[in-house]
Amino acid sequence: MGQKVWLNGELVDREDAKISVFDHGLLYGDGVFEGIRSYGGRVFRLKEHIRRLFDSANGIRLTVPMTADEVTKAVTDTLQANGLKDAYIRVVVTRGVGTLGLDPNRCRSPNVFIITDKIELYPRELYENGLEIITAATMRNHPNAVNPRIKSLNYLNNILAKIEAIDAGTLEAVMLNHQGFVAECTGDNLFIVRDGLLFTPPIEAGILEGITRDEILAIAREAKIEIREENLTRYDLYVADECFLTGTAAEVVPVVRIDGRQIGDGHPGPVTKRLAEKFHRRTRS
Ligand code: PMP
Predict the structure, then answer these.
(1) Max alpha carbon distance in the chain (Å)?
(2) pLDDT, average across residues 182-196
(3) Which domains are assigned to the chain?
(4) Ligand 1 mean position to 235 CA, how many Å?
């Protein structure tokens, strides 16, 4: 059985899952999306992801042509049709087919599709030994441009930063905001540990309010680890005892080198390991 894609209410073969070249999602990156995970057949934090999808859509004045319950059912149906238990789920809502002008009001109806696939994580070795990252020259979107809280189809800024990372021989890059403070990585939120305290940039720094980030903050609170949502500079990263990234696909990834500086003792730290372990248990329980 081939892969099935959910497209506007129907489960179609992968080869038939097509969108018009006149869709503004393609012409202008006009649309929103979510990346979600399922573990052992259970979708992790689906409600939160769907809420963020609807918030993102609202942020760009796009009406999702479905209810939250309908999206939930569509996600479950797609997983089932593909016989997937541990999967990555991509939900996309585009503005739909329109004219060559920008005007979104001339787009007839949004297109919605859901792709489920095997998860693609960083190599196992990176979770054990840690990742090296750099700071990108490309900065994160200004919150008064496309607010980074909106998970839009416009990822070019992040892609440019990702190219910088790859050029530097690394897999991820830290993006700073317009004030020079640390925002986040191209597809993950960032945390550091210093003197036993857990630091992460606040939402106002211009970041995506990551669902994994929220989960890590909740786990840290439970574990009585003190949390500081504070602006961080590059220098704060260099002098951290530990650093790690969080995201739906990547989960919790230790970082051991930033811009050529070794972080802590150059190995994933105890707080990182503890939080990763607790997160792992939450997702699989
Ligand atoms: N920041 C950015 C820019 C992202 O694209 C993502 C999701 N890939 C994240 C952070 C992490 O968010 P979440 O934990 O909700 O996956």
Answers:
(1) 57
(2) 98
(3) 4-117 (3.30.470.10), 124-284 (3.20.10.10)
(4) 23
Alpha carbons 113 and 5: distance in angstroms, whole number: 7
Percent pLDDT > 90 in the chain is: 97
* pLDDT at position 122: 86
User: Does the pLDDT of residue 120 top 80, yes or no?
Assistant: no
Which residue's CA lies nearest to atom 8 of ligand 1?
187
Query: Does this model's pTM top 0.90?
Result: yes
C-beta 187 within 6 A of ligand 1: yes
Pure H helices in the chain: 24-28, 46-59, 68-81, 124-129, 156-167, 211-222, 234-238, 270-284
Token duo for residue 73: 């059912």
CB 104 within 8 A of CB 93: no
Residue 285: per-residue pLDDT? 81
Tell me, using a 6 A CB cutoff, whether residue 35 lines ligand 1. yes
Pull the structure tokens for residue 250: 């990547």
Report which ligand 1 atom has the smallest distance to the Cα of 215.
Answer: 14
Tell me the sheet residues that pair with 32: 93, 152
Residue in 21, 260, 25, 249 with CA at minimum distance from that of residue 155: 25
